[in-house]
Amino acid sequence: MKLLNLTRPLNNEEISQMHAINQANSPDVGDIPNVNQFKSLIDLSETIYAYKDKGIIVGFILLMREGTAYQSENYKFISSKFDQFLYVDRIAIDSKYRRQGLAEKIYSKVISDGNLLGLDVLCEVNTRPKNEISLSFHKKMRFNEIGTQDFEKNSVVYLKRSTK
Q1: What is the pTM of this model?
Q2: 3-state secondary structure of 50
Q3: Average pLDDT, stretch 5-23?
């Protein structure tokens, strides 16, 4: 399997595959009730990396830059603190492909991109419900806490990987 930079426009099959993986990974990644809403999120993304196995997407990451019209409270928090950034909106791996190093390879590419662009890589991870696997992963990848926020249904910690 090779990490691909998906070019736009994505076809309906790719969007559906990514949406299905997203939903299977909820609540660790945000629930997006339907494919059309997921397509809107894709349209706001600056970069989409994905792994495909036999032509089927098995893992992906959506990256955003500053200045989009994204209305996520997490994106708004990041935007209020940083002028320029590379924001990981979500990463999701099909359950059959977990524990094979795909997330680490995807993040290594994102961190490399951040270095080339001179941008910090920013994200958030659920602390309620606690996503212990993701928290440990981000610590291993040398992300540091930059803030927290409590919402009605969940709480998050905001993380930054400095590239400067």
Answers
A1: 0.94
A2: strand
A3: 95
